[in-house]
């Protein structure tokens, strides 16, 4: 190699070295921040403390759902407790710091995988940088909430995104494994498992069976048959059972369909003084009937859309996938704001549309949805104050936005159903 060639390589090498040093320095700073945040975690009154304790109970053979007072939960399946063993291998503050750092690093990972999915499904979209940047900024408060609580929702989001990416690449086994694993940690991603069965290729649907069997069997293998079966029974009785009996968490931070209905119709419990007021007072039995009816409508619309797309052998679109994310949040018993990191994907669906190519009616729909997205994305207690944020939460502005986005996803998934493309984006085959 000549001296001139070496000289030409020197600047590139220098840039690489400087880039690596900056990256290492940034990671060190983030680690110090993570340690400071992790040092504040305790077992009681802490989401992560509940993860750590449940993992510790799993590791030491204790009952998973007999938690002491002040510990949040129980809320997670036995498979999640098996995974949470990893947290319990080190002291709680250090473990919390590690998850905090992981959550920070998963933000760019989520953005990157989201972009690759859209590149595969919608090469015709507005590929300028600003729609993705806007989607990141407008959903960032939910990522920040997840990080501050040291929650696992970003891990669940990335698992779902990797499942989508694997499905698009026709790696059906990996897609099933990603979706089922996410659902075995937090139940809500089970909507993606349902999507894979109803809408997916036959081999993808069949791959769900061994994945589900593994997620049920592994905790039993770790704990033994007697304890493993008892764990499943207690999870059903103490966690799922309350929602099967119609229990609704109407706290203003809960952004589900049931919480919306109950805040509109049922007065707050004694001792709770919300900043919002009940707009349509009704007996609790009436509220329950309205909630069940609304849930059936959303569920039938979701499944009906998937069935129609399958019958038409329609190409897979991001709007269809967005409807899966949104249906899961609306129909869940609990959707805290930290769960809404999925807004990155659903916001980008509409922000990346080439609006000028739409009919006037669809333009009005998209502009209205984008306006709602901007309002939701720019609220937050630190931005608008506690009083305004209490009204936003109490009157369920986020839930109403999810409902409208869900309708928009159904409309656009059907609108594109006629444009069949003979490639990996075809869902059924």
Characterize the structure shown:
Residues 421-429 have low confidence and may be disordered. 42% of the residues are buried. It is built from 18 helices and no strands. The protein is globular. Helices cover 71% and strands 0% of the residues. The chain has helices at residues 3-38, 47-60, 78-88, 92-121, 129-149, 153-168, 172-185, 190-199, 202-223, 225-244, 257-265, 284-311, 318-331, 343-351, 360-377, 381-384, 386-394, 397-415. The longest helix is centred in the first third of the chain and has 36 residues, at 3-38. The protein starts with a helix and ends in a 14-residue tail after the last helix. It is mainly alpha-helical and 429 residues long. Helix 1 (3-38) crosses helix 4 and helix 11 (257-265) runs antiparallel to helix 12 (284-311).
Task: Throw out a few tags for this protein.
429 residues, mainly alpha, 71% helix, disordered C terminus
Summarize the structure in short:
The chain is mainly alpha-helical and 429 residues long. The protein is 71% helix and 0% strand. The protein is globular.
Secondary-structure map with pairings?
Blueprint: H1 3-38, H2 47-60, H3 78-88, H4 92-121, H5 129-149, H6 153-168, H7 172-185, H8 190-199, H9 202-223, H10 225-244, H11 257-265, H12 284-311, H13 318-331, H14 343-351, H15 360-377, H16 381-384, H17 386-394, H18 397-415
Helix pairs in contact: 1-4, 2-3, 3-9, 4-5, 4-6, 5-14, 5-15, 6-7, 7-8, 7-9, 8-9, 8-13, 9-10, 11-12, 12-13, 13-18, 15-18
* Backbone shape: globular
How many beta-strand segments?
0
Strand proportion, as a percent range, falls in under 5%
Order of helices and strands: HHHHHHHHHHHHHHHHHH
Share of helix, binned: over 70%
Could you give a short account of the major beta sheet?
none
Number of helices: 18
Based on CA atoms alone, the radius of gyration comes out at 23 Å
What's the rounded overall pLDDT mean? 90
Report the structural category.
mainly alpha
Low-confidence sequence ranges: 421-429
What is the CA-CA span between the terminal residues? 53 Å
